Amino acid sequence: MAPSPGSIKRVLLKLSGESLARSGETGINPEVAAEIAGEVAAVARLGIETAIVVGGGNLIRGASFAKMGTNRATADQMGMLATSINSLALQDALERCGIETRAMSAFEMESLMEPYIRRRAIRHLEKGRVVILAGGTGNPYFTTDTASALRATELGVDAILKATKVDGVYTSDPKTDPGAERLTAITFKEALQRDLRVMDRTAFTLCMENDMPIMVFDMYAPGNMVKAVTGEPIGTWVTSGS
């Protein structure tokens, strides 16, 4: 079942790389990064420990390069570097909001950010620092969805907040089906049976096996991240149902 109001103490926010740009843009829009930082800062100021995993699709999509002939491992490494650029942009935006932040990489980038060490990341969270987790899992062939599920499980968060451009999970694509209905809650098994694709299958299975709740919500609506962690009825909770 969904976490009860007030029970969430630690979360992991999953952002797509595209969330750092306006619709139709590529790259990083500093104004958008500042807006996202403001939403995260509001949650951090509530005393909720916050980790972030951000994708790199606004800069490069490794899977697309692989389809055009680039070695898949190399293409994915390029994508992991893109997540690191986005992580540094978010770190800067958060620190300009007055939030102490640590960026940690799954592969060595010592002159730019700390290496990811689970116990160190937990310690940063306990000290009230926002932790940005760059580089995916550090391995090719895994998406940032999977990195989010893995890190959320390792860090013992209470929920994954999956930020999207829609206000939850729908029975079908609301862009093409005017009869699509938003679900307020759904179980992992139901989402798989309906093929709703909340996350990629590897990530989703990892969450299901570890009973990791997922909140799918619209990051672009101001205040929604605070509403998600304080139990207001927004978005869609995906849980084990037990």
| Structural class determined from secondary elements | alpha/beta
Number of domains: 1
Q: What is the H/E order?
A: EHEHHEEHEHEEEEHHEHE
- Oligomer state equals single chain
**Strand order, largest beta sheet:** 4-3-5-2-1-6-10-11-9
CATH architecture: 3-Layer(aba) Sandwich
Instruction: Calculate Rg over CA atoms.
Output: 17 Å
User: What percentage of amino acids are in beta strands?
Assistant: 15-25%
* Largest sheet properties: 9 strands, mixed
> What's the level 1 CATH class?
Alpha Beta
Q: What is the approximate shape?
A: globular
Question: Treating each run of at least 4 consecutive H or I residues as one helix, how many helices?
Answer: 8
| Average residue pLDDT | 92
List low-pLDDT spans. Answer: none
How far do the termini sit from each other? 5 Å
Bin the helical content: 25-40%
Report the strand count. Answer: 11
The CATH topology, please? Carbamate kinase
Brief descriptors of the model:
242 residues, alpha/beta, Carbamate kinase, 9-stranded mixed sheet, two-stranded antiparallel sheet, 8 helices, 11 strands, 19% strand
Summarize the structure.
This protein has 242 residues and is α/β, with parallel strands linked by helices.
Please describe what this structure looks like:
The protein is of the alpha/beta class. It has a single domain (10-239), classed as Carbamate kinase (3-Layer(aba) Sandwich), CATH 3.40.1160.10. The chain has eight helices and eleven strands. The protein has helices spanning 30-44, 62-67, 72-96, 118-126, 144-155, 188-194, 201-209, 224-230, and strands spanning 10-15, 49-54, 101-105, 114-115, 130-134, 159-164, 169-170, 182-183, 185-187, 214-218, 236-239. It has a nine-stranded mixed beta sheet, sandwiched between helices. α1 (30-44) packs parallel to α8 and α5 (144-155) runs parallel beside α7 (201-209). The longest helix has 25 residues, at 72-96. The chain is globular. The chain starts with 9 loop residues before the first strand and ends with a strand.
